[in-house]
Amino acid sequence: MKRLSLFTKCLIIFIGCWVFLRFIVGNVISVPIPGSVIAMYMGLIIVAILVHISVEDTRFREFLRPIHETLVDNNRRVRRRVIAVLIPLFLLGYTYSIIAQRTNPPGNPRDAHPSPPLEITYKDEVIGATQEVENPFRHYEKDDPEAFRAHVENGKRVYYDNCFYCHGDDLDGQGHFAPHIQPLPANFQDPGIIPNFQESFLFWRISKGGPGLPAAGTPWDSAMPIWENYLTKDEIWDVILFLSDYTGYQPRTFGEGH
Amino acid sequence: MKAGLGLRDSVPKKKLYLILGLVLLSYALLAIAPAFAQDMSEAEYRPFPKIGSRNAAWIAAQLHLLFGSFILGVPMFAVIIEFIGWKTKDARYDRMAQEFIKLCMGAFSTTALLGGVLVFILIWCYPKVMSKLSGIFGPTMIFYVALFFGETFTLYLYSYGWDKMQGRHKGWHLFLGVLLNVFGTAIMFVSNSWLTYQTSPGTQYGKLSEGTRQSWLEQKLAQNPEMSRAEAMEGITDATVIPLHNETTGEFLATVWEAVNNFTWMPVNIHRLIGNIAFGGSIVAAYAAFRFLVAKTKEDKAHYDWMGYTGNFIALCGLIPLPFAGYWLGREIYMFNNTMGINMMGSLFSWLFIIQAVMIGVLFIGANYYLWSGMGRIEGAQIYARYRPYMIAIIVICVAIWMTPRTLSKISTSSELSAMGGANHPHLGLFGLMTAKNTAVNIIILTTFVSFLFYRRSGKAPTTSWKKVGNIAISSIFFFAVVSIVVIGIVGFTVPTDLRVNVLTPYQVMIALAVMVAVTIIDIFMYRKATMSGTIKWGEMTDRSQYVLILLAITFTSLMGLMGYARSGLREAWHIFGVMQDTSPDAFTPLLSEAVNIVAIIMVMFFALVGFIFWLGLWGEKKKEAAAPAAADVATEDD
To answer: What is the pLDDT of residues B380-409, one digit of tens each?
Structure first.
């Protein structure tokens, strides 16, 4: 059996990686990966292949040999003509895919996380600097576990009375209303949500809702109501305790610096 | 004979006067800046024609910083190389160190000139800001000028005294080199205090003087007359960040030292110090690559190949700890102000950090590529080639993790978002969290270290009786280190952030550093009496590897420019965060695309200037070479 050339091997690796990301990861292991992320990974795979083949001169020449043969060897005339047709066709298809009218709406270009204000307020009352405001009931976790449980229970009541329609039974952002909201409600079970933010940030997000989002990083298009119009300050703090208690994730706290 | 010497000496003397004149002119401007700024204080802003004030200040500051980094970074390793040459009595090291310093000389006056341009732009376009800053930092600005004079004269003594201070004076010459670095580092620390104060005008309570504590307490009580002293001090610990100014009037309440020793000063100092070493090394390596590519003789190719290798090695030494220093700086920004931290990593500047990951990926892949290419010129290095595909795969997978964004809403269509069930991919989204990225970075660093280890071992055969045990020990250390780093990374998803940031991540870093130290020690002893199985054929490198060195320098430069945009942009619409608001027409954060364009322009300008300085050096060399035979002829006639 004829040995595969280095060029062919590299081509197989490249196509294999694409199939793996697009179909195996996207359909079997997990959910589909956005095309832009696949493109980014494929770019890296090209770099890896180029590094591997070009470190040594002999390997580089071996890689280039079939390309050189295709371009100049008379015995490769058919291959040359096929490629001469395929490249413009590929470019044509690619150009069409970029400029063609799309029927699906564009994604949401909002920022990952909104920047919190420097001060946390409830209605017009200033609670304190975002950096310093703490949940007034958090200390019960150590000082008075019974009182802490009572606040968590109250938070649970508030959550299931108000929040679960969008954020879901299991706090995973899969509530009844969720499929009809874009952007989707936050998934509190995600390890990147609660642990990344201080409780003051969560208080700000709940109390001010979508309309209270900052001017920068728009469009937010958040459907979150302004909960300070419906909930008391203590109810908001309680629901924050419930979120971390239920998911097991602790909101961000800070050490002492350098 | 005299005629010959006169011809040779006249060139450096003229150059010396020219450089001195430029330096004095530029820094005289800096010295008068406080007074000048006060005179101009009636106007708040003045527009800079055509490109606007912010862009003008941005370009001048970034160019000044790039040249500054170069002239601070290069002398650091020039002294080390000179010391190695002195101890090993290998004249090649001495020649290379001298060549590095020659490169510095041209860049030195350009740095000073750009500093002068920057001061002009700042006091013309931002008189009020300069007035405020010079009012606080006035004494440090005078100190800065004194340090600069110290550095200037030390550099000239160090450079022009090189040939005369050989032999028994070499120790003194090295002392001058060390002194030069002390001056350079001090200069950088002083100027860092000004810009870090703009970002973080606060210090921890424990670091404040008694007088400042009292001023702060009094202004707090004045703001809340019903508050008692005990209530005002409630929750205040030594670690609490205290603003250095009256929060209502903006009046400065602290001492100059407290303003200097502000919250992010030391993290920026350390980050820049290490960054300068890496940057200086990469620019020297790029210079060597250029000289290699145009070299006509085998000797020149060998010399510049070796120089490129040394420059890249030094850049790597700086690059390896750089992510750790950057992480510390990022952590301190979060500590100073949570909003600023979220802006940096999760909001306004988050996509910049994806670009940063791509560029650091390029740096690590490029550095490894160069090492692997270099092994091609060492006989007996082929035995390590079989590990290369696995190392490439590890590095590329880790870079992929590092550059995977957490939130994909900006780069996905609505149908892709629906398919993912939100803006985060349920599995790949985990790569977007810092615990995954830190794990990936540590593994990239260890893999790069393995490449270097292979390079070091190439062409050598250990003769120690315990070589097998040593290799097993080294392999085990690597294996357990990688397993530990990965396990810590996985645990990091489940623990509170405070624990991850303050305990787990430092553990990962310490494991990586400890592995490098332990393995280096074992390896040194194992290969102490190694026999040479092959020689290094200096000069027999591929041209591709030299282009990689140039790419590394370009990447470093772009990276510094882009991260400078982040550091400065984090203040948002504040000249001094929380104290002095930016009310100019430029009081908005430029788009990332705009920032990339400006940084690209700065990069082109920087390389054009550096290219011109290097060309001047080459031109001088050619003139000298042409003059040498003529001088020899004159000398012969005189004799």
So the answer is: 888 899 999 999 999 999 999 999 998 888
pLDDT on residue A257: 53
Instruction: Answer whether residue A2 shows pLDDT above 90.
Output: no
CA distance B265 to B270: 9
B8 confidence band (pLDDT: 50, 70, 90): very low
Q: Which of B561, B557, B623, B547 is nearest to B592 (CA)?
A: B561
In a domain, A252, yes or no: no
| Structural domain count of chain A | 2
Looking at the fold, whether A163 and A219 belong to one and the same domain comes out as yes
How far is the CA of B373 from the CAs of B224, B231, B523, B540, in angstroms?
68, 66, 22, 10
Question: In this structure, how many other beta carbons lie within 10 angstroms of the beta carbon of residue B337?
Answer: 23
Distance from CA of B497 to the nearest CA of A (A): 5
- A:B CB pairs within 8 Å: 209
Provide the domain limits for residue A219: 119-247
Are residues B369 and A51, on separate chains, in Cβ contact within 8 Å? yes
The tens digit of pLDDT for each residue in B480-492 reads 999 999 999 999 9
User: What ipTM, to 2 d.p.?
Assistant: 0.84
Which chain A residues have a beta carbon less than 8 Å from that of B385?
56
Question: Do both A165 and A65 map to the same domain?
Answer: no
A210 found inside a domain: yes
Provide, as residue numbers in chain B, all residues whose Cβ is less than 8 Å from the Cβ of A101.
none
Q: Quick check: A216 and B369 CB within 8 A?
A: no
Which residue of B408, B414, B415 is in closest CB contact with A37?
Answer: B408
The one-character DSSP state at A30 is S
Enumerate helices (H) and strands (E) in chain A, giving the number of each: 9, 2
Q: Map residue B401 onto helix, strand or coil.
A: helix
> What is the greatest pairwise CA distance in chain B?
96
Partners of residue B204 on adjacent β-strands: B241
Closest C-alpha to B519, from B443, B438, B468, B446 = B446
In a domain, A61, yes or no: yes
Q: Report the residue of chain A nearest B590, measured CA to CA.
A: A216
Which residues on chain B are in Cβ contact (under 8 Å) with A248?
494
Among B238, B262, B378, B424, most A C-beta atoms within 10 A, so best to mutate, is B424
CB neighbours of residue B383 within 10 Å? 12
Are residues A207 and A173 both part of a single domain? yes
The CATH code of the domain that includes A164 is 1.10.760
**b/e B445-458 (16+ beta carbons within 10 angstroms → b):** bbbbbbbbbbbebb
A232 in the same domain as A132: yes
Domain edges within chain B: 2-199+262-377+536-628, 210-253, 378-535
Same domain, A131 and A231: yes
Q: A55 vs B373: CB contact, 8 Å cut-off?
A: yes
Tell me if A187 and B424 make a contact (CB, 8 A cut-off): yes
Contacts of A109 in chain B (CB under 8 A): 409-410
Neighboring chain B residues of A130 at a CB cutoff of 8 Å? 338-339
CB atoms within 10 A of CB B297: 9
The predicted-structure confidence for B148-192, as pLDDT tens digits, reads as follows: 999 999 999 999 999 989 888 899 999 999 999 999 999 999 999
Sort B528 into a burial class: Cβ within 10 Å, 0-12 / 13-18 / 19+.
exposed
C-alpha Rg value of chain A to the nearest Å:
28
Residues A243 and A123 in one domain: yes
Chain A hits for B412, Cβ within 8 Å = 34, 36, 107
CA distance B37 to B43: 10
SS3 of B291, please? helix
Assigned token pair, B50 = 């055509």
A41 belongs to a structural domain: yes
CB contact under 8 A, A44 and B421: no
